[in-house]
Design a protein that fits this description.
single chain; mainly beta; twelve-stranded antiparallel beta sheet; eleven-stranded antiparallel beta sheet; 25 strands
Length: 382
């Protein structure tokens, strides 16, 4: 079943070929509340390592013209933090990889800094399976004068505990043999599609509190040589049955994929999906061919919003997901590939999606579910 924990899939993957042409990132998203007003605000946090074998004391930016001219690849740890909403921001802090300490094996940890901090690790920014802390601050001047930072301006400081509750283990596609052979262009593992976060966020001087019961937390991991196009992601654990009116406290769904590549083989328009519905597992996984999983999806951009419509079925189950997110609450998330290319220039990313999921079994409606606080992403190379 997909709800099997496997933290070995969260370990650092940039060895052998991926060490000089690869990325590895750990993504987290959650909702916090303003310490004084109670205002709800979604945040995200990511540690992104690129081409460690090419690293040194200073980060190497693939977007710098002088590096692009000579084909110099990017190499750094990028700590990406930000928020969604009408003031959506992504803030980036870069470290040269000689100033980054990655714990190899299981469990993973990433510590970055110059060694002057008094936390026992000398880390300005830190991430492990169970906690993260750090600070990212980008001035308006730096954001304007350094487009290679791919960053907005602002400041975020965080101190969080992480408790990953329900995983989405995608199966043999990310198993040890496939990881060792580095067969997929982009791998995915979700150790915490439902996760509990607790702690504090300080955003532009305003304090926010994160509590497990209403954080709607999520934690996953991607690694590989390049990104997929199209790029699709939808997930939420803020779910309410439209039939009973009750909150589904033990449920979460997750959908991801687009155009996976296995060696030279391209698998066009494929998604991996899981719905943990009040303790029962429903999975739609094209790699498990014996399930006869079929998928149709239509993602599009209108003038004011992004729309996702996904239909998936197996021999005896079906899931229909329809989500929208207002573009004013989203951002165009920025990455460069390990080759130094920036091909995703309209990769819409949000945390305020809303919509419905219909779940069927043996042609009978199991539930129609209202979903909120949806983490969502869509983009194609352009």
């Amino acid at each position: 079943m997909f709800c099997k924990k496997d933290i070995a899939r969260n370990e650092f993957m940039l060895v052998r070929g991926l060490a000089h042409c690869g990325y590895d990132w750990w993504w987290h998203s959650f909702t916090a509340h303003h310490a004084e007003t109670g205002e709800e605000k979604p945040f995200f946090l990511e540690f992104f390592v690129c081409n460690p074998e090419l690293g040194g004391d200073e980060p190497v930016f693939g977007q710098l013209e002088e590096n692009r001219k000579v084909g110099k690849k990017p190499s750094y740890l990028m700590v990406k933090v930000g928020t969604w909403g009408e003031d959506a921001r992504q803030l980036h802090r870069f470290f040269g990889l000689s100033k980054v300490r990655v714990a190899l094996g299981v469990p993973f940890s990433v510590a970055a800094g110059d060694g002057s901090c008094e936390d026992g690790l000398g880390a300005d920014c830190f991430l492990s399976e169970t906690e993260s802390y750090g600070q990212v601050s980008v001035s308006e001047e730096d954001a304007k004068n350094h487009p290679e930072y791919m960053s907005d301006s602002g400041s975020i400081k965080w101190n969080l505990k992480i408790d990953k509750q329900i995983p989405f283990n995608v199966g043999y596609g990310a198993s040890k043999p496939f990881r060792t052979l580095q067969l997929f262009e982009m791998f995915w593992h979700v150790e915490g599609m439902k996760s509990y976060f607790s702690g504090e966020i300080e955003y532009n001087g305003e304090k926010y509190i994160v509590t497990p019961e209403d954080c709607y937390g999520y934690a996953d991991k991607n690694w590989g040589r390049d990104f997929t196009s199209p790029w699709v992601w939808l997930s939420s654990n803020n779910l309410t049955s439209k039939i009973t009116g009750k909150k589904l406290e033990n449920s979460v769904f997750d959908i991801g994929g687009g155009r996976p590549k296995v060696g030279p083989l391209v698998l066009d328009r494929k998604l991996l999906s899981a719905f943990y519905y009040e303790g029962k597992c429903y999975e739609f996984n094209f790699s498990k061919f014996w399930t006869n999983t079929r998928t149709f999806f239509d993602c599009r951009e209108t003038e004011s919003r992004i729309v996702w419509h996904v239909e998936q079925s197996t021999w005896n189950t079906k899931m229909i997901t329809h989500i929208t997110c207002e573009k004013k609450d989203m951002l165009l998330v920025n990455y460069e590939s390990p080759k130094g290319e920036k091909r995703h220039n309209r990769l819409w990313n949000g945390g305020n999606g809303k919509g419905t999921v219909k779940l069927y079994e043996n042609d009978e409606l199991v539930d129609e579910i209202e979903v909120s606080n949806v983490g969502c992403e869509y983009g194609e190379f352009c």
